[in-house]
Amino acid sequence: MRNEESVISMKYNSSGQLSVLLAGLMLLVASLSPDSVTAQLGKSNLPQEEGGVYLEDLLDKPIQLKVVKPSPVYSSLKGDRWLGNLVPGHPATLLAISDRAYRVRARARQGQVAGWVSPKALQGIDDKMVKKLKKLAERELLVQDLISKKQIAMGMTVDEVERSLGRPDNRTSKVTKQGRKDKVEYITYERVAQSVTSTDRFGRLFQSTVYVKVPVGKLTIEFEDELVSSIEEAEGDNVAGPIKVVPPPIVLF
Questions:
Q1: Which residue intervals of the chain bear CATH 2.30.30.40?
Q2: What does the alpha-carbon distance between residue 58 and residue 249 come to, in Å, rounded to a whole number?
């Protein structure tokens, strides 16, 4: 009898452990829904080292290079940890640049790695492109600072202005031989109290208060070829802030 109870107990324990395991797997699958996976993939997991310009959030598509000579790959700009040696002839995805090394994702003899390597080991990027990438990063910092303060500047694009101020209240466009011109308006409203005299069902007069949206300010922004060319503000708060200028978008290719 004891043996049977022992066998039944073992089966019960095994079944219970299996149920717990299956429940854990179901929770794991639920946590890896398409939305959560997309959100995770959209975030950069690269360590942001000082002196490096990271390209993942700057470029619409990554820059592909070619490994032309074997070279050691390190985990940091200081060369703290050796990750392996790159294999010549294989492609490399450019992740970040600095004055003395480039961070790439490529195949090493030890397997796939992401680390810093000498620029001499790579082909497909020159000094001119590196300068453009650095200017692109500098401009992005300026624009992001303006957007965080809900301000605008000469040289911003239509998309950047909307990211800073939201969708405009009015928009007009005009295309000529000289190019495209757009004008948008942002109107500031205030709720103003007004007294209204009415009659009740017995014909007696009474007063009530209603609130009416009244325009108190207007910001007009003009674009030439989709870049801010003029800013005009009438009354209201100083939404635009001090007039600033940012460089036009950098054309890489």
A1: 53-125
A2: 11
Closest among 125, 49, 131 to 94, alpha carbons compared: 125
Which of 139, 104, 142 lies closest to 123 in space, CA to CA? 104
pLDDT at site 238: 54
DSSP state for residue 249 in the 8-state scheme? P
pLDDT at position 25:
36
Please name which of 142, 168, 147 lies closest in space to residue 245, comparing C-alpha atoms. 142
Which one-letter DSSP state was computed for residue 235? S
What pairing do the DSSP bridges indicate for beta strands 170-176 and 72-74?
A: unpaired
Taking residue 119's Cβ as centre, other Cβ atoms within 10 Å add up to 18
Q: Would you give the DSSP letter of residue 241?
A: -
User: Confidence class of residue 161 from pLDDT cuts 50, 70 and 90?
Assistant: very high
3-state secondary structure of 229: strand
The type of residue at 58 is: L
CATH number (3.30.1450, 2.60.120, 2.40.160, 1.25.40) of 149-234 reads 3.30.1450
Q: What is the pTM of this model?
A: 0.67
Question: CATH fold of 53-125, please?
Answer: SH3 type barrels. (2.30.30)
Tell me if residue 219 falls in helix, strand or coil.
strand
Question: Over 60: is that where the pLDDT of 27 sits?
Answer: no
* Type of residue at 218: K
pLDDT of res. 147? 95
- Tokens linked to 15: 């079944």
How many Cβ atoms are within 10 Å of 108's Cβ, its own excluded?
21
191: which strand partners? 213
